[in-house]
Amino acid sequence: MLKIIFMTLMLIPTTLMLKPKILYSATTSYTFILALISLNFLEPNSNMQLCLDYTSSPLFTLSYWLLPMMVIASQNAMKKEPMQRQRTLLATLSALQLTIALTFSAYNLTLLYLMFEATLIPTLVIITRWGQQAERLTAGTYFMLYTLTTSMPLLITTLYLNNKSLTPTLFIQTTQLINQPTELILWLGCLSSFLAKMPIYGLHLWLPKAHVEAPIAGSMVLAAVLLKLGGYGIIRMMQTLPLMKTDTFLPLIILSMWGATLANLTCLQQTDLKSLIAYSSVSHMSLVIAAIMIQTKWSLSGAMALMIAHGFTSSALFCLANTAYERTKTRILTLTRGFHNILPMMTIWWLMTNLMNIATPPSMNFTGELMIASSLFNWCPTTIIMFGLSMLITASYSLHMFLSTQMHTPLSNTPTHPTHSREHLLMMLHVLPLMLISLKPELVI
Question: What is its main location (predicted)?
């Protein structure tokens, strides 16, 4: 376990000292090696304070798999920048990966809290330093205010549990240490931080801003990994705090189901491509929240499957949006149309990714959403109305996004660069693992 952590740590000085000519080739090779090594950790193992189990190992591997893809995706945008800024971006991405890896492998609550909060700093640097517009500072402020304000109750909960158990709390049930009235307060303290990170509808306003202003690497890691930290945190807290009746979480389940529907409706009126994908992440994460709150084995398996599938799908959508942006210099849907005539190969990737986004079988997204739908229906049959409505609107905006970007006559008269093999490799690395996981879903469920 420590081998891969130290290798990730050594990536930071490596990127700062490599010769400019081999900077991207060497960094990409190094990160690919890390991604391949991380595949060994799909089979859980432990090493004292750093431990992986069946909940954390798929997310741990997903985060490492996305690291080389972030380097590949950033390459075209960063080559115009001074060498020092290119090195700094790669070092910041490595530092972010290190904090994410330590979050997923933390064996006690204190380390989980510290690393959970440490992920904010590299993310904020990426958004504010390499964002494309002046609004990036506002986005950074939103991001910090929402996440830091809601993380204060989690800190108090962590300190309380540490004082009760007289040790940095391990993920073991501490029922005998906690009074009945305190349980709900502790749960609310933990949920506030993790739900804002996912984010639940109502605490979601930082997410579209952060996505729109972030560079491509920032958008990829935000959508694919950082949103999953919230879901992972809630699942972990279930192993520590006393289990509550599902009815206690009824307001949160209702809010997340309505939030999914409202976020989907918001997608229908978006004109900005990145903003549309960001709001679709809010709706998918709302389903994950509802599934985790039901607290059955079936619903938790569905939540894990959807988190992994959404990680690949949303990251792929942001990569496709970036390829369109690099050629048209705009993200407005009506101005990026007609790509089917110019780049027909990319249209295939657009179609495949959109079909995965609307959970067409046999994709992993379908497995996750089917398990969540059956769990919700088993818990309360009325939820199928909201779930069905949400799925209908998801299909509508996904097809709208596909048709808007690919069909009709191109508005731009400027010559468009053909697609690079680098971009096709990037899409293949997103789509292929997702298809392979759907053949052997027990790796992540």
Answer: mitochondrion
